[in-house]
Amino acid sequence: MGLLVVNPGLWTTVQDLGRPGFREWGVPVGGAFDRRSLALANAFAGNPPDAAGLELTLHGGVFEARCDLGIALAGADMEASIVDPDGGRRSVISPSSTTLKAGERLILGRATAGARTYLAVAGGFGGRSSERPVRAGDFLPAVPSRLHGRRPRPVESAATDPIGEPFRCLPGPDSSSLADSEALWNQPFQVGLRSNRMGLRLEGEPLAVVPEAERLSAPVAPGAIQAAGGRLIVLGVACGTMGGYPHVAQVISADLDRVGQLRSGDGLRFRRVTIDEARRLDRQAREAQRRWSAPITALSRDLFELEFRPEGTPG
């Protein structure tokens, strides 16, 4: 029982919230690139935020239910529809929840805005985060379930806007390596084609870096901005734990989800903030997510229990 991968799309992986706490052993955190969107999809499926879901990048794919499955979508706007065995079709809008009945196929097309969409099922998929993309013929185990069709309120559905505002950053430990310390904050950049979950290569005016006779590798984390040959690289959630390029800035945690929704060609700018401001923004983002996720999850679970309550069981 579960979901059959008919067409895996461009780059689809199983992701949860990663493996924090093992960087000292060289294990990247990994997990969903847009954690907020995975948490929203999981909330609509009645799951905890760290339940494993599918991360679909730029183009979704085709998936067939082998039993009734309550599903939820969130993240980038992606063309989506459900086709039954007789050819009947109904559209699905993200974010929302619905039921994919046994034999029906969920068809996900291209992302029209943003880069990554998340597919959750009630109860979560078996397994944990993996950088191995799913393949045609793979089977993703899941328990039978049904979910009512639900759309969120505006405060819940507000998508992560990758380019609406500058990315807020802290100066990095090697910010003094830039010949012009203000160049990073004063000019626009663009996401290049060579970008993935490990990092995004940026295009723009080259940044001059003060040469060093010898440079030792140092710890890095997702959101680190490195200067390599005058070009910038923004490290993603699958980045390594050490880096040898100058670490000139760090995207704050409150803006990391937006990095995960950038696609090649997107323009972006950076804005410098203080450590106190970064901590305040992180607390605000965490509290906002707690406020909307708890009631959505609770209602989804209540509707699930109502749907599957045996006849004669007290309400």
Please name the defining characteristics of this protein.
315 residues; alpha+beta; Cyclophilin; nine-stranded antiparallel beta sheet; eight-stranded mixed beta sheet; 5 helices; 34% strand; disordered C terminus; ATP binding
Give an account of the 3D structure.
This protein has 2 domains: 2-160 and 288-303, no CATH class; 167-273, Cyclophilin (Beta Barrel), CATH 2.40.100.10. Helix content is 18%, strand content 34%. It has 5 helices and 19 strands. The protein has helices spanning 35-44, 154-157, 183-186, 256-259, 275-308; strands spanning 2-7, 12-15, 53-57, 59-65, 69-83, 89-91, 96-100, 105-121, 139-141, 167-171, 189-195, 199-203, 218-219, 224-228, 231-235, 242-243, 247-251, 267-268, 270-272. The strands form 3 sheets. Strands 1, 2, 3, 4, 5, 6, 7, 8 and 9 form a 9-stranded antiparallel beta sheet that branches. Strand 14 (224-228) and strand 15 form a beta hairpin. Helix 1 (35-44) runs parallel beside helix 5 (275-308). Pfam families: CT_A_B. One of its GO terms (molecular function) is ATP binding.
